[in-house]
Write a structure and sequence with these properties.
The chain has helices spanning 13-21, 34-40, 57-62, 81-86, 99-114, 117-125, 151-162, 176-182, 189-195, 215-220, 238-246, 286-306, 320-326, 329-343, 365-376, 388-395, 467-477, 508-515; strands at residues 4-7, 25-28, 46-49, 68-71, 90-92, 143-147, 166-170, 185-186, 198-201, 226-229, 252-255, 275-277, 348-357, 399-405, 413-421, 424-433, 437-443, 446-450, 455-462, 482-489, 495-502, 520-527. The protein has 528 residues and is an alpha/beta fold. It has 4 domains: 1-95 and 285-314, Rossmann fold (3-Layer(aba) Sandwich); 99-277, NAD(P)-binding Rossmann-like Domain (Rossmann fold, 3-Layer(aba) Sandwich); 318-428, 60s Ribosomal Protein L30, Chain: A; 445-527, Alpha-Beta Plaits. A 7-stranded parallel β-sheet has the order 8-7-6-9-10-11-12, with helices on both faces. Strand 16 (424-433) and strand 17 form a beta hairpin. Helix 15 crosses helix 16 (388-395). The structure holds nicotinamide-adenine-dinucleotide. Nicotinamide-adenine-dinucleotide binds at residues 98, 102, 147-153, 170-174, 202-204, 206, 208-209, 230-232, 256-257, 280, 282-283, 379-382. Keywords: Amino-acid biosynthesis, NAD, Oxidoreductase, Serine biosynthesis. Catalyzes the reversible oxidation of 3-phospho-D-glycerate to 3-phosphonooxypyruvate, the first step of the phosphorylated L-serine biosynthesis pathway. Also catalyzes the reversible oxidation of 2-hydroxyglutarate to 2-oxoglutarate. Belongs to the D-isomer specific 2-hydroxyacid dehydrogenase family. Its EC number is 1.1.1.95.
């Protein structure tokens, strides 16, 4: 009997054809109410969805025959991943399926701005013929600055090079070798802001990228430069952008995404002629919608017929004994990866995960995978998990090393994560007390005992009296409450280190104030 596939969201006729031609029995039932879906799901081996069908734990309980769920698209928020994993159901998505489409919109925005297409259209429709006013610029020979060269940014690089642009890029998570393969020169962010004639943003919204383009950055851009954001709302300070356009400092800007969607009708940008926008339609082309549908159909067919797993986003089960031993360490290791990512120099090229002590006896692949999840999460938009993180790290040219040693002097088991890049390395280690209490026990050369959770300020300073008092006072004045403190110093007492768990995220002004305190060398805000 052939496997049965239920298509419960609008895929595409081509996708259905792919499934049928693969010899699968396909039922297309779009828009079923949850009860109706629950009533029939027990008869299917595979479920294909977009974002409308909610694949809940309750639905999965009835899905006694289900082996795989395919989501045509990236986000899998509509699927209860834990419940699917517990039931041994593989969940797949189609990352990168709309990259060409989004990159083309970014390019259209740049072309449209250079040639004033939207403003000129409005002018002609208003009965005017303003040839002089709408004299534009050529793309050819201009410098494009791309911030983030992942799935979408790298397609834009390719297209821009073909249009004879000089392309520079900033992406702290791509090795120069990987960038060279794309035909792009990696530069520091300051250089990109200063040199680019047009800038296009293709980064996820993270703590580092929120408000990345603020008034200060806009002021550093070339006079007449263009800015395009088809990534996420919140990366650009929209009010500062309106000011930079109104003053004539920027030549034009285009947004497909807004901090608040839809934006309010009195948005300050709407009054600016050199501002162009679209209603978050970056991924909306017939081709992209069809491409992700066909991709998921091919993935489902390959899995059902040959057992080939591609783009799985949930974790295959491990033997229970192994899981019991690893389970307390997995959240710790994810935090170690995250901490190392936030402390590491730009452009990490190598990650080493070292397990010492009792834990060295169990398979360590899940630990290194989980460290990569914690690390990559700071840079990537794609949902990450133990299955895809190692493959993504490899694709990005990152070497991953696993080291184990039976001896651990101070702890029953200790896991160390070291991230190396062009600018140096960051090394962090942690342990778990009594199966539950995770602790960071080393940050670079400093031994400590810190709780890896929430907002953290790390500070390196000269080992001099009064430094910690000043830090406490400055934080108190700023209304930032310290929840826990772990202090450490080097044996020769040249440097000291503080790991402060705080109740709220310190703003940039607070961090700047801390950096200006006497004897303070380095201050960083971390979120774990
Ligand atoms: P991706 O994860 O493949 O690539 C993101 C890249 O940004 C990575 O290479 C990463 O190393 C880099 N990066 C992370 N932090 C950075 C930083 N601080 N500075 C510079 N680079 C940094 O993601 P993608 O699929 O290319 O998507 C890029 C963006 O486009 C995301 O924000 C995504 O939500 C957005 N997107 C928008 C639409 C739309 O409809 N407009 C559609 C799809 C995706």
């Amino acid at each position: 009997m052939s496997a049965r596939v239920l298509v419960s969201d609008d895929l595409s006729p081509e996708a259905v054809k792919v499934l049928e031609e693969a010899g699968l029995e396909v039922d297309v039932k779009v828009g079923l109410k949850p009860d109706a879906l629950e009533a029939i799901i027990g008869g299917y081996d595979a479920l294909a969805v977009r974002s409308a069908t909610k694949v809940t734990a309750k639905l999965l309980e009835r899905a006694t025959r289900l082996k795989v769920i395919g989501r045509a698209g990236v986000g899998v928020d509509n699927v209860d991943l834990d419940a699917a994993t517990r039931r041994g159901v593989v969940v797949m998505n189609t990352p990168g399926g709309s990259s060409v489409t989004v990159a083309e919109l970014a390019l259209a925005m740049i072309l449209g701005l250079y040639r004033h297409v939207p403003a000129a259209t409005a002018s002609v429709k208003a009965g005017k013929w303003e040839k002089k006013k709408f004299q534009g610029h050529e793309l050819s020979g201009k410098t494009l600055g791309v911030v983030g060269i992942g799935n979408i940014g790298s397609v834009l690089v390719d297209r821009a090079v073909a249009m004879k642009m000089r392309v520079i890029a900033y992406d702290p998570f791509i090795s120069p070798e990987a960038a060279a393969k794309l035909g792009v020169t990696l530069v520091e962010l300051d250089q990109l802001w200063a040199e680019a004639d047009a800038i296009s943003l293709h980064v996820p919204l993270t703590e580092q990228t929120r408000n990345l383009v603020n008034a200060g950055v806009l002021a550093r851009m070339k006079r007449g430069a263009l800015l395009v954001n088809c990534a996420r709302g919140g990366i650009v300070d929209e009010r500062a952008l309106a000011d930079a356009l109104a003053s004539g400092h920027l030549g034009g800007a285009a947004l497909d995404v807004f901090e608040k969607e839809p934006p309010p009708p009195d948005h300050p940008l709407f009054a600016v002629e050199s501002f162009v926008c679209t209603p978050h339609i970056g991924a909306s082309t017939e081709e992209a919608q069809s491409a992700v549908a066909v991709a998921i159909a091919e993935q489902l067919a390959a899995y059902l017929q040959k057992g080939v797993v591609k783009n799985a986003v949930n974790v295959p089960g491990l033997p229970r004994e192994v899981m019991d031993q690893l389970a307390p360490y997995l959240p710790l290791v994810e935090k170690l990866g995250s901490l190392a990512a936030q402390l590491a120099p730009a452009g990490p090229t190598e990650v080493t995960v070292e397990v010492a002590g009792e834990l060295a006896a169990v398979p360590m692949r899940p630990l290194s995978a989980r460290a990569l999840v914690g690390l990559l999460r700071h840079f990537l938009e794609t949902p990450l998990n133990d299955v895809n993180a190692p493959a993504i790290a490899k694709d990005r040219g990152m070497a991953v090393r696993e080291v184990r040693s039976a001896e651990s002097h101070d702890y029953a088991s200790v896991v160390t994560v070291t991230v190396r890049g062009q600018g140096g390395e960051a090394q962090v280690a942690g342990t778990v007390y009594g199966k539950r209490e995770a602790r960071i026990v080393r940050v670079d050369g400093f031994r400590l005992e810190a709780v890896p959770e929430g907002h953290v300020i790390v500070c390196e300073n000269d080992d001099a009296p009064g430094v910690f008092g000043n830090l406490g006072t400055a934080l108190g004045d700023a209304g930032v409450n310290i929840a826990r403190i772990s202090l450490s110093r080097q044996e020769d007492r040249s440097r000291a280190f503080a790991f402060l768990n705080v109740d709220s995220a310190p703003g940039p002004e607070v961090l700047e104030r801390l950096r200006r305190l006497p004897h303070v060398r380095v201050v960083r805000a971390i979120h774990l």
